[in-house]
Amino acid sequence: MRPRVGHIEFINCLPLYYGLVKKQVLWDVELTKDTARELSHKLMEEKLDICPIPSIEYARHWRELVLLPGLSVSCDGPVTSIFLVSKVPIHELNGRKIALTNTSRTSQVLLKIILHDKYHIESEYVESPPNLGSMLLDADAALLIGNEALAIHYKAPEGLYAYDLGVEWKALTQQKMVFAVWVARKKFAQEKLQLVRDVQHSFVDSMQYSITHVDQVAEDAARWEVFDANFLKAYFTTLRFGFDQEYQQGLMEYYRRAQALGHIAEIPELNFLEV
Amino acid sequence: MRPRVGHIEFINCLPLYYGLVKKQVLWDVELTKDTARELSHKLMEEKLDICPIPSIEYARHWRELVLLPGLSVSCDGPVTSIFLVSKVPIHELNGRKIALTNTSRTSQVLLKIILHDKYHIESEYVESPPNLGSMLLDADAALLIGNEALAIHYKAPEGLYAYDLGVEWKALTQQKMVFAVWVARKKFAQEKLQLVRDVQHSFVDSMQYSITHVDQVAEDAARWEVFDANFLKAYFTTLRFGFDQEYQQGLMEYYRRAQALGHIAEIPELNFLEV
Question: Which site from A9, A166, A265, B225 is most exposed, i.e. has the minimal number of CB atoms within 10 Å?
Fold first, then answer.
């Protein structure tokens, strides 16, 4: 049986998918595309073997998982696809209501860390589908990610303040921020070590391909996405896809702060697959 | 939006998938893999735009569909993946119970046509999951397709009679038999004609690639399938994937006989996409 592999249907993972197609990896894996949250459910239900998951989910399930080295979705300063949009300057949000997109867990916690640790603010949070208009109907600020956030980067809404959470995180911690990591179920990795190594290798190879062919990725993606090729190229080159020491430090910093605020029960160890 | 395209998770469609990977088509379609039956449901619910469907399903929904030219899953004589396995010679099955795999509609009707038109037999039919042992517990014969049928071709079960339905059909009609066709929803094809033409072209091109590289397809497939490369190569070269005049005649012959026995309400027209 081919390894059952998850892929996040999200614009920040497009470069990886492009590489998987170009490097013809899709013959050797059984790919399931879904939202990050659905994929992590399927992984924990043992319906998938290898999968990208939101950073915060790794902290919750790390004892059953191993990390694939060399691969993440991260940023080093600007991310341009995670924005807090506010009617008032960010430091005035104390006691006000903030609507959080229900499409991201990791970014929700990231926002709460930034507001607490950097601005010393306590706000009221409500979850909402990602629609800026309706979010701002009964909240003073809105957290958006993905295409909705990129649209704000593309054209800043008039009369609103917009804060890139990658920039805010870097200003607070001087660190990179890791949004998603790739993992295998530990049991699967023990039983099929070479297979997981092969997948890890193919994925890193595919990502490398996309990074070195980013013009082409952006052009081919623009055919099917709402944004134009130049904009997509700028976005894909803003994102970081590595997972070396510096990324790991940034991720651990995120976990320490998340745990201090009670969002995760414990700080996980970063257990990597041996390759 | 990429066109939403279905792919049958079935060994007879592996060559097409291989071609789609090698020709890097998967970037330009949103692929959903499922059983033939599930795919045709999704197509009729407008959750898919382009899809392979069982021949019998085309007859039921043809007014809402257009056929993609140049592509089918067919045979010309032996098919080796659709078998009637029987405790007694086939002409002795009159009045006996036959268990039909619940994984195929087209083959169920094909068997009934063969038994009625060629052997003049009326049997009692029950549907069953595809397990030869349990099927033959309370039936005298069993219809199997796919891997279960190939296993019989690989090693004939002792003391049982096995009949290849492709051979039986050819003996009855002197025609090819078409098991699956590729279709687009008519409305989608009207709105996105060039896109559907592009997909049709890519699919025919991908299938052509696999046919000319069948050794490689069989070898790569053997890594993940239960059968060895030689066996798979023999199977893939037994199957036919074209859809010219002769295939169309064979399909119409099937429809005429299916309608005469009351399995479809009317004989469909073969409406092709203009390419």
Answer: A265
Q: Which of B18, B24, B220 sits opposite A22 (nearest CB)?
A: B24
Q: Would residue B97 count as lying in a domain? A: yes
Cβ contact B186:B66 at 8 Å: yes
Range of the domain at B244: 4-74+177-260
Residue of A nearest to B221 (CA): A27
Closest-CA residue to B52 (of B21, B76, B73): B73
Would you list which residues of chain B are within 8 Å, Cβ to Cβ, of chain A? 1-2, 17-18, 21-22, 24, 26-28, 220, 223-224
Query: Which tokens is B208 given?
Result: 């052509």
CA distance linking residue A81 with residue A13, whole number of Å:
12
Which residues of B9-94 form beta strands (DSSP E)? 30-34, 50-54, 65-75, 82-86
pLDDT digits (tens, 9 = 90+) for B168-196: 999 999 999 999 999 999 999 999 999 99
Residues in chain B closer than 8 A to A224 (CB atoms): 1-2, 28
Q: In this structure, is residue B268 part of a structural domain?
A: no
A interface with B, Cβ–Cβ < 8 A, is 1-2, 17-18, 21-22, 24, 26-28, 220, 223-224
B14 and B62 belong to one structural domain: yes
In this structure, are B163 and B194 located in the same domain?
Answer: no
Tokens of B182: 């590729």
Distance from CA of A90 to the nearest CA of B (A): 36
CB B48, CB B6: distance < 8 Å: yes
Q: B266 lies in a domain?
A: no
What is the per-residue pLDDT across B123-167, written as a single tens digit (0 to 9) for each?
999 999 999 999 999 999 999 999 899 988 888 888 999 999 999
A18–B27: do the CB atoms touch at under 8 Å? yes
Tens-place pLDDT, residues A89-128: 999 999 999 999 998 889 999 999 999 999 999 999 999 9
The pLDDT of residue A157 is above 90: no
Residue B183 covered by a domain:
yes
d(CA A246, CA A257): 17
**Alpha-carbon torsion A188, A191, A195, A200, what sign?**
positive
**Whole-model pTM?**
0.87
Number of domains into which chain A is organized: 2
Residue B98 and residue B96: Cα distance in Å, rounded? 7
ipTM of the prediction:
0.80
Q: CA-to-CA distance for B247 and B240, rounded, in angstroms?
A: 9
CATH no. for residue A219?
A: 3.40.190.10
Angle at A72 between CA A12 and CA A191, to 5 degrees: 120
Q: Which pair of structure tokens corresponds to residue A131?
A: 């629609």
